Amino acid sequence: MKTVQTKAKIISNKKIKENYWHLEFESAIIAKNALPGQFVNIRVGHGFVPLLRRPISIYAVKGVKVKLFYQAVGTGTQSLSQRKSGELLDLIGPLGNGFDYRQAVKAKDARSILIAGGMGVAPLFFLAEKIKTSQPLVLIGAKTQKQILCMQEFKKLGCTVKLATDDGSLGFKGKVTDLLKLVLGQTKGLGLFSCGPRPMLKRVSEISCENKIPAQLSLEEHLACGTGACLGCVVATKSGYKRVCKDGPVFSSKELTW
After folding, report:
1. What is the pLDDT of residue 223?
2. Alpha carbon 258 to its chain's center
3. Tell me, what CATH number does 156's domain have?
4. Whether 46 contacts 76, CB under 8 Å
5. Residues 215 and 253 sit within 8 Å (Cβ to Cβ)
6. How does pLDDT run along the chain (258 residues), one tens digit per residue?
7. CB neighbours of 197 closer than 8 A, spacing ≥ 6?
8. 189 neighbors 111 (Cβ within 8 angstroms)
9. Residue 108: per-residue pLDDT
10. Do 89 and 117 share a domain, yes or no?
11. Spatial contact of 5 and 29, defined as CB atoms under 8 Å apart
12. What does the alpha-carbon distance between residue 67 and residue 122 come to, in Å, rounded to a whole number?
């Protein structure tokens, strides 16, 4: 895998709904090397304000075009939402270790299950594109119907999609991890792939252990350098502390301690 610092031309930067955005840029080298679960670290403004880059998951790749899916919630991502088509983005990527999906592609008698909480849909959509021929099952969870993301996009890939909302406004009423337990009682799972809030990932890890199904978890942490130098994003594992940006963001559930 080759990581580069480059300047890439913005093709589009569109508001999808509320404060959710799709940004697409052109970079042949990043498109060629990107793997599901990896991210790019972007200088979001035109200068050095804000100083730190922002890590954004790679959502999709098509030819030399790379698409990102992000939520404009703070100073950095709000600055990113103001960037225009034709401008150049200063970015570093692809960064991090992604999902190992080799067995998922070959699966015949069992299904891969993708579990997304909130913005966790971003890296999982790229993964779903890679393994769509195996017809993965996608579980998407949110607090309420308005916060369900990318349902139609996953369906267009041919994925089976099931939804869970805390308030029952759409789909299963309850946590997406409760839906996962229900699904595993009806479906033979080959492996679990998940991204979302830490409490959700902890529960996915427990369920994978209970059902003896391997799970790969993409952790959401605040990152600074994005390259492993500053040690600001370490998490505890059974073999010591590891860097989310460099050793992750994807880890086997067996590695992590909660």
Report:
1. 73
2. 20
3. 3.40.50.80
4. no
5. yes
6. 688 999 999 999 999 998 999 999 999 999 999 999 999 999 998 877 777 899 999 999 999 999 999 999 999 999 999 999 999 999 999 999 999 998 877 766 678 999 999 999 999 999 999 999 999 999 999 999 999 999 999 999 999 999 999 999 999 999 999 999 999 998 888 899 999 999 999 999 999 999 999 999 999 877 777 778 888 888 999 999 999 999 999 999 999 998
7. 117, 118, 120, 220
8. yes
9. 67
10. no
11. no
12. 10
Residue 174 Rama label (left phi>0; alpha psi -120 to 50; beta): left
What's the token pair of residue 25?
Answer: 């840029």
Q: Let me know whether 147 and 62 are in one domain.
A: no
Residues 6+ apart with CB under 8 A from 3: 33, 92, 93, 94, 95
Does 124 share its domain with 158?
A: yes
Query: For the chain, how many residues are written?
Result: 258
DSSP codes joined into one string, 189-229: EEEEEEES-HHHHHHHHHHHHHHT--EEEE-----SSSSSS
DSSP code per residue over 50-103: S-S-EEEEEEEEETTEEEEEEE--SHHHHHHHT--TTPEEEEEEEESB----HH
Classify residue 141 by burial, with Cβ atoms within 10 Å: 0-12, 13-18, 19+. buried
**Closest by CA position to 202, among listed 166, 236, 169:** 236
Domain boundaries, position 28: 4-95
Most distant CA atoms of the chain, gap in Å:
53
